[in-house]
Design brief:
Blueprint lengths: L4 H23 L4 H22 L3 H14 L4 H13 L3 H12 L6 H17 L3 H14 L3 H14 L3 H15 L4 H17 L3 H14 L4 H13 L3 H14 L4 H15 L2 H14 L4 H14 L1 H14 L3 H14 L5 H16 L4 E3 L5 E2 L15 E3 L7
Antiparallel strand pairs: 1-2, 1-3
Helix pairs in contact: 1-2, 2-3, 3-4, 4-5, 4-6, 5-6, 6-7, 7-8, 8-9, 9-10, 10-11, 10-12, 11-12, 12-13, 13-14, 14-15, 15-16, 16-17, 17-18, 18-19
Amino acid sequence: MAPPVNEIGLFWLLLPLAALVSWFLARKGTDRRRGAQVDRLRSTYFRGLNYLLNEQQDKAIEVFLQIAEVDSDTVETQLALGNLFRRRGEVDRAIRVHQALVSRPSLSSEQKTQALLELGEDYMRAGLLDRAETLFAELVGTGSGAPRALAHLVAIYQQERDWHKAIEHARRLEQVTGDSRAREIAQFHCELAEQALARGDAGEAQRHIEEAFATEPGAVRALILSARIALAAGDHQAAVRFYEQVVERDIEFVPEVLKPLLACYETLGKPYQAEGILRSLVERYPGISPVLELSRLIEARQGSEAAARFLTTHLRRRPSVRGLGALIELESRRGDGHDTPALALLGELTRQLAEGHAIYRCTRCGFGARSHHWQCPGCKSWGSVRPIHGAAGD
C-alpha cells in the first residue's frame, strides 16, 4: 500500500537528517565505541523511517523517542516527533514537544520559526483557533514563515466564517507567493453575498457579486447568485441569461440550474426554448438530469408511452438507476395490464438503491455527498465537488 503524500514528504525531510546525524556523531570522535554508537543510531533512524512508510506510527514514535533520549539537542528529531504526535491525534503531546522546542535559547531563527509554525498547527488541530491566530499573526508581522503562516490564517478565518479577513489575508498571500488565489477570493465574496441576501440586503449582495466577477471573471457561483437576485426582482429574462451563462461556463453545474432555468422558460411562456436547450443538454451533458426533464416534457405533450420509449432508448445507451426509477414510474402510471404491485416493489428498491449512493464527489479528496457543496467538507477546497456520472450517479 502506497504511503500517504504527507508521510512521503516527512520521509524526504527525515532522510537527509539521518545522514546528518551519522555525520555529526562521527565528527565527535573516531574511536570504535563512538563508531558503534553512530551505527546503532543510524540503524535506529532508518528503522523508524521504515515504520513510518509502512504506516506503523506507534512503532515509529517509539524509535524517534529513543533517538531523542540519545541526543535531545537534535531539533529536527523533536520536530518530527511532535509532527507524528499531532497526526496520530495526540495533540497535547505534540504541543508539549513544540513548546519545549520554542523555549530553547539556542535555536536559530529558522528553527524557532519552524517550531512556532508546528505549534500553531497543533493549536489548530486542538481547536484553539485564537491561540493559533495570535501566533501566526505574530509570525506574519515579523516576516518569519509568512507564506505558511498566512495560509493558516486564511484557513482559520474560513473556519470562523470571517470572510472579510479571509479576503484580506488571501490577497496578502498572493502578494507574498505570486500564486493566484482568485478562485478562493471570489468564493469568499460569494459567501458575503449569501449573508447579505439572508439579511435582505440585495444591494450589498450585488456589490460582493461584482467583486467576485472582478476577481474571477465568469465565476459560476456569482452567476447563480445573480440569477437569484434577478428572480427576486421578477426579471425572469435576466435570470435565464445568467443560468445559460452557467451552462456555457461549466456544464457540470447543469443539475444546480436546470430546474430554475426551466421554471423561468415556463413563466416567460417559452416552452420550445425549454425543449431546445434540453435536447442540446441531452447530447452534451453526460448525466441523467436533462434526460429526466425532457421525458417529463414529452409525457406532458405526447403521453406516457412516448416518454417511456424515449427513456428506454436513452437508458440502453447510458444505464442509470435514477432513469430506471423514472421509467418504472411511467410504466406504473400507464396502467395497461402491467403487474403494478411488482412494479411498485421494483420502484421502491430502485429508489432505495439511488438514495444509498453519493451523487457528488470531491475531485481532490474523494469526499462523497448527496448534495452539492461549494467548499468540500472533507479537504476544505473550493469548487472541487462535482457530479458523479454513471449508473448510480447523476
